[in-house]
């Protein structure tokens, strides 16, 4: 079967997978049916293009376009480590998420390879398209888990014991998806540069009135679990002054987080809570809430989270409740290779902008791999929502930009 180079056709193929008829949002949870269908789609698309596909023991995937004439030095083939150019993104989503976060980078990578072939381009360095699993961290609470495992930032022994909201161990979920972790993880030994295309999750490009940009940095960010413990009691017979209500402590903490983030120009969000016993006519005994916080520097983020936790603890003392704060997934700031970003920006006079969202690119950069990101304009700036969007013309501009970037990185005289 000949490769399908039509970006729009590939996008139409993906549109129904994991989509909610009620909201229009996507439920593409890792190691579940929709995400498994997408991984199978990826294999089919890559094989139709003659790419060599590797799938590791947890579902990470990479497909390589091998050079016909490998780069050589003094008559001998040079080690592959310094030459492979990898692109791609992820296929999972947050619950009721948007269509573009992740899949846009994967579809655009395949379309960019098609475009390079149409141009008659022949790579001297291997070109790869990757899909990393559980990037969102929406099922097992660890963002960029697939890339963290591949780079060694997290071990399988640590990850396998993680549980989802239904109490399913990650190790069991991987087994049930038909994968075998004993087969090992993807090797990044041949990857010299990584480029991730992503829909922008903000309005910077909209404000600049440009379709494409490059990333300068990722703000540090993390997730902290706040366990507010109190005393369960009857909602009708318990006087207000006799209560030890952790919901009140949580409510004040959510307001404090909002205030501190606004004052500091940072981000703080309580987007998920769990309540016990979760009865309408009962004072709760336990409220567990997860804080997502982001800041422009590691120190600024730590200071803000510290202030929020301190105010929460002080309120707990007044409410007769208690608080335990546990960091679950914290990523430090990432500064992308400035020389690489400047070199690539010159290809299209693209702006270089920061992002407050985490990405697999940040994990690979942290592992010492020169990394860049290409952003495609999001007309509303809305993301992690069914309203997430990118215009087709901007997506195609992103494909063109990515093809230009890959050609630049894969040319013979490009720096290793």
TrEMBL record:
Binding site for Zn(2+) 2: 101, 136, 384
Alphabetized PANTHER family for the sequence: ALLANTOATE AMIDOHYDROLASE, ALLANTOATE DEIMINASE-RELATED
The organism's taxonomic lineage, starting at the top: Bacteria, Bacillati, Actinomycetota, Actinomycetes, Propionibacteriales
Record GO terms (molecular function): hydrolase activity, acting on carbon-nitrogen (but not peptide) bonds, in linear amidines; metal ion binding
Alphabetically ordered keywords of this record: Hydrolase, Metal-binding, Zinc
InterPro entries: Amidase_Cbmase, Bact_exopeptidase_dim_dom, Peptidase_M20
Naturally occurring in which organism (per UniProt): Nocardioides alpinus
Cofactor annotation remark: Binds 2 Zn(2+) ions per subunit.
Binding site for allantoate: 223, 281, 294
NCBIfam families in UniProt: hydantase, PRK09290.1-4
UniProt-recorded name of the protein: Allantoate amidohydrolase
Segments crossing the lipid bilayer: none
Cofactor(s) needed for function: Zn(2+)
Binding site residues for Zn(2+) 1: 90, 101, 198
Annotated Pfam families: Peptidase_M20 (PF01546)
Record-stated family: Belongs to the peptidase M20 family.
């Amino acid at each position: 079967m000949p490769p399908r180079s039509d970006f729009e056709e590939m996008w139409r193929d993906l549109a129904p997978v994991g989509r909610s008829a009620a909201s229009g949002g996507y439920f593409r949870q890792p190691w579940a049916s929709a995400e498994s269908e997408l991984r199978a789609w990826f294999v089919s698309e890559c094989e139709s293009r003659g790419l060599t596909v590797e799938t590791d023991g947890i579902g990470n995937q990479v497909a390589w376009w091998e050079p016909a004439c490998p780069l050589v030095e003094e008559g001998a083939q040079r080690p592959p480590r310094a030459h492979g150019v990898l692109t791609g993104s992820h296929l999972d989503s947050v619950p009721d998420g948007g269509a573009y976060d992740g899949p846009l980078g994967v579809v655009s990578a395949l379309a960019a390879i098609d475009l390079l072939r149409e141009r008659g381009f022949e790579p001297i360095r291997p070109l790869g398209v990757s899909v990393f699993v559980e990037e969102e961290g929406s099922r097992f609470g660890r963002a960029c888990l697939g890339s963290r495992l591949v780079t060694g930032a997290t071990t399988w022994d640590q990850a396998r014991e993680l549980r989802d909201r239904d109490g399913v161990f990650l190790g069991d979920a991987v087994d049930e998806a038909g994968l075998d972790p004993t087969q090992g993880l993807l090797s990044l030994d041949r990857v010299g540069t990584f480029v991730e295309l992503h829909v922008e999750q903000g309005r910077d490009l909209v404000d600049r009135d440009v379709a494409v940009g490059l990333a300068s940095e990722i703000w540090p960010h993390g997730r902290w679990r706040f366990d507010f413990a109190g005393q369960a009691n009857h909602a009708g017979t318990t006087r207000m002054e006799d209560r030890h209500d952790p919901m009140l402590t949580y409510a004040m903490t959510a307001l404090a987080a909002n205030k501190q983030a606004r004052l500091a120009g940072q981000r703080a969000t309580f987007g998920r809570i769990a309540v016990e016993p979760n009865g309408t006519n009962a004072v709760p005994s336990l409220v567990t809430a997860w804080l997502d916080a982001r800041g422009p520097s590691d120190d600024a983020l730590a200071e803000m989270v510290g202030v929020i936790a301190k105010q929460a603890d002080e309120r707990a003392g007044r409410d007769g409740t208690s608080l335990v704060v546990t960091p679950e997934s914290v990523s430090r700031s990432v500064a992308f290779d400035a020389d690489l970003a400047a070199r690539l920006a010159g290809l299209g006079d693209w702006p270089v902008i920061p992002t407050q969202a985490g990405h697999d690119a940040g994990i690979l950069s942290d592992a010492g791999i020169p990394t860049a990101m290409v952003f495609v304009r999001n007309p509303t700036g809305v993301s992690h929502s069914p309203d997430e969007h990118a215009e087709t013309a901007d997506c195609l501009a992103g494909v063109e930009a990515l093809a230009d970037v890959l050609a630049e990185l894969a040319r013979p005289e490009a720096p290793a």
